[in-house]
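Researcher: We're teaching a course module on how sequence relates to structure. For the next exercise, students receive a sequence and then see the predicted structure as tokens, so they can try to spot secondary structure elements on their own. Here is the exercise chain.
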Amino acid sequence: MISFAGGLPAPELFDVAGMRTAYDRVLAENPRQALQYSTTEGDPELRAAVADRLTARGLPTGADDLLVTTGSQQALTLLATALLEPGAVVLVEDPCYLAALQTFAFAGARVVPVPTDDQGLVPEALEEIAARENPTLLYVVPTFQNPTGRTLPAERRTAVAEAAARHGFWIVEDDPYGELRYEGESVPWIAAAPAAADRTVLLGSFSKVMAPGLRLGHLRAPAGLRRSCVIAKQAADLHTSTIDQAAAARYLRDSDLDAHVAVIRAAYRERRDALLEGLPAALPEGSRWNRPEGGMFVWATLPEGHDATALLRTAVGHEVAYVPGAPFFCGEPDPAAMRLSFTTHSPDEIGEGLRRLAKSFV
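Model: And here is the predicted structure for the students to work with:
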């Protein structure tokens, strides 16, 4: 089976040797502390290292601005606990990251979709919906979005920040893919916009640049909301794994994460290009797809009349898989949409997978 379905990082690119060394040094030098309970806010050295990385990328941040979480998925759950009452309105991009929709549904929120186009969330639609719905928060993945791979332009980010300031809702800016840029210029975080600096929460993760098995994420939020999230985390799991935080901090101290990320980017860019090169021959005439500047996903739409969910069974019969796009929609789903992940296969495997996919449309 060649799968374009999973949104997984490539395991052969994990820096196993560097991580092993980090764990060995932590256990050799300070084993009692590494194996003990820790503070809810997170390892001070790790928070300082994350703050330095955010500052270097254009968002001035101190260690005390951050809460370490058990993956950025937990950060989203903590925010839902801190901010949402049953019936609260949450705005989301349509389509949206599926696990976010599940989190908000479990919190009892009423999720309202905001239309998107090829550049992401449409600010005019956000303005109209926010005025009508009085939302508590907007959840957005503005850089290399899951599932579409789209990046919200700078002027739209400013418009989102200004809308939050006008209407008083929180912005939850999720950025798991931001360091995986293969071309083009970086776009500033919404969190860096002055208009919404006091209303924006930035979520980050080591899953895509270090290893997802560490389950390490972080939340940058204004002090009052951050304190509420700390209390919610105390109730949830007390703190994130002490030894995993210590090993990550040691890795950041002793290794060059930026150099490692450059290796990942080079491999993923080659894989993205292989997927884009093969799509014209793999998909039916009249299909459309985007060219993401980074991230892990290509968003494709089959011609009218095609149903990606129904076709998946045929594709699996040819030993190839993808994710139908319909489940990512909060509003009216597009049955012809599909998400293709390019990160976990070599260019040759991607080519073979696309040849198999083409047989599904014969």
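Model: If you want an answer key for the exercise: The chain has a mean pLDDT of 97. The radius of gyration is 21 Å.
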